[in-house]
From TrEMBL:
InterPro entries reported for this sequence: CMP_dCMP_dom (IPR002125), Cytidine_deaminase-like (IPR016193)
Protein name: CMP/dCMP-type deaminase domain-containing protein
GO molecular function, one term: catalytic activity
Pfam families (alphabetical): dCMP_cyt_deam_1
Domain annotation CMP/dCMP-type deaminase: ranges: 188-267
Highest taxon listed in the record's lineage: Eukaryota
SUPFAM superfamilies: Cytidine deaminase-like
Cofactor(s) needed by this chain: Zn(2+)
PROSITE patterns, A to Z: CYT_DCMP_DEAMINASES_2
Length: 267
């Protein structure tokens, strides 16, 4: 559906004024002076599940008094205290003490989370209050473990300080975290495209808009196919820089909602 001329309001006039002389659909010309901002090395924007340490919870564990009984105890404990939500954890933790003797602990159950000892989680129970007794195990005690699997090696190294846990490394993710995901040629391209976005932002500032710019890049052709900057002050609160940049791409392909050359685009 074609957008009525009146719907564009002052934004239509402002966008027409910013169209380059050669018909480029970019909102800001590439020759705009650089704002002189030093562009840092790109860093990944990742979720807290990846960047933050894995949360810890309390669990009950018990020492193995006779190491020869470890296999039997693992089977009996696993049968009585199944832990389907903690399958990333090893059931046994072996540690060497100061005298180089190996001590073995077995994971029993999750501890109740509330102050009164109750919990809606069927896996959470206090083994000392349920007639706990396994021949060959010592008195249970509380310790901390990771509540979920580690996603990154950094998280894994933090988790194993508390209890052994399985870990499957995502090599692609680790490259992103280490900062060597991009080649030197790709970094040069990123710098170039970011500079173009900053130029658009500077152009917006000079025309009384918010200094925010956006660039759309064709990764196959490795070239800019759309540039835009903030136009919300021109009359439409939806005219964010990204929205405008995307529309310039559509306009270059005989589409688009806003008219950059004085003709109403189609929706």
């Amino acid at each position: 559906m074609a957008a009525p001329m009146g719907d564009l309001g002052p934004c239509k006039k402002k966008m027409k004024e910013m169209t380059t002389a050669d018909g480029d659909t970019s909102i800001a010309p590439a020759s705009t002076a650089s704002p002189g901002v030093n562009i840092p090395h790109p860093v990944p924007v990742l979720s807290d599940d990846i960047m933050a340490p894995v949360p810890l919870i309390d669990v009950y564990v018990a020492p193995v008094l006779d190491k020869k009984q470890t296999s039997r105890l693992i089977k009996e404990v696993s049968s009585r205290f199944p832990l389907p939500d903690l399958l990333h954890l090893k059931r046994v933790n072996s540690q060497k003490s100061g005298n180089k003797e190996t001590t073995i602990q077995i994971l029993l159950s999750k501890a109740p989370s509330s102050e009164d000892g109750s919990s809606a989680d069927s896996e959470s129970r206090d083994p000392t209050e349920n007639g706990f007794h396994f021949d060959g195990l010592g008195k249970p005690f509380l310790t901390k473990v990771a509540v979920r699997p580690a996603i990154t090696r950094r998280q894994f190294e933090h988790c194993v300080q508390y209890w052994p846990t399985a870990f499957h490394e995502d090599k692609l993710l680790e490259r992103r975290l280490k900062g060597d995901f991009f080649t030197s040629e790709e970094l040069q391209s990123i710098q170039k495209y970011m500079q173009r976005a900053l130029q658009a932002a500077q152009h917006a500032k000079q025309t009384g808009m918010e200094p925010v710019g956006a660039v759309v890049v064709d990764p196959v052709a490795d070239e800019v196919i759309g540039v835009g900057h903030d136009l919300r002050h021109a009359g439409n609160p939806l005219h964010h820089a990204v929205m405008v940049a995307v529309d310039t791409v559509a306009s270059s392909q005989d589409g688009g909602y806003w008219d950059h050359r004085g003709e109403t685009g189609s929706s």
